[in-house]
């Protein structure tokens, strides 16, 4: 297994994995969001989304999206782990943990110590992993959309 930043050649696999993630949450995004996100991933901007692919035998099988952002609570940025996906037949193999650890390494490399994320309360499989690798904060999300 290797972890790597996607190249332009990986767009099809990235779309496949991200679509599967969105399908899991029973949602869709328009084509414009796919195009914009893909371009942002490759822009290199400090606050643009980042992506890492988990690859097994040359086949991308997992992805993580994350981004750095400012905070009023610290001079250092925060890191929001936005999307984490591993193909269903590889769940429980440690790939999710490896992707989370890589985000933590990437964050630490730029001086960011706070990595956080959310998941849906019904996502029991992911929550088993999250309860082992992170601290549950107790905060409840609200949304104005």
Characterization of this structure:
The chain is an alpha+beta fold. Helices cover 36% and strands 23% of the residues. It contains 4 helices and 5 strands; from the N terminus they run βααβββαβα. It has a 5-stranded mixed β-sheet, sandwiched between helices. Strand 4, helix 3 and strand 5 form a beta-alpha-beta unit. It starts with a strand and ends in a 12-residue tail after the last helix.
- The low-pLDDT segments are none
Integer average pLDDT: 96
Helix % is: 25-40%
Largest sheet, spatial ordering of strands: 1-2-3-4-5
* Biggest sheet descriptor: 5 strands, mixed
- How much is the radius of gyration in Å? 15 Å
Principal-axis shape: globular
* Broad structural category: alpha+beta
Contiguous helical run count: 4
Distance between the termini: 38 Å
Instruction: Tell me the total number of β-strands.
Output: 5
SSE ordering: EHHEEEHEH
Tell me the strand percentage band. Answer: 15-25%
């Amino acid at each position: 297994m290797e972890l790597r930043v996607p190249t332009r050649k990986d767009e099809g696999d990235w779309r496949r994995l991200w679509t599967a993630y969105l399908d899991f949450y029973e949602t869709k995004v328009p084509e414009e969001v796919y195009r914009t996100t893909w371009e942002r991933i490759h822009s290199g901007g400090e606050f643009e989304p980042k992506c890492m692919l988990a690859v097994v035998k040359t086949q991308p099988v997992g992805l993580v999206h994350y981004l750095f952002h400012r905070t009023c609570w610290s001079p250092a940025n925060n890191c929001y782990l936005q999307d984490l996906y591993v193909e269903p037949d590889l769940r429980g193999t440690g790939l999710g943990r490896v992707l989370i650890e890589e985000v933590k390494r990437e964050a630490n490399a730029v001086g960011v110590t706070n990595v956080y994320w959310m998941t849906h309360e019904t996502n029991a499989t992911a929550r088993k992993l999250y309860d082992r690798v992170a601290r549950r904060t107790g905060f409840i999300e609200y949304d104005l959309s």
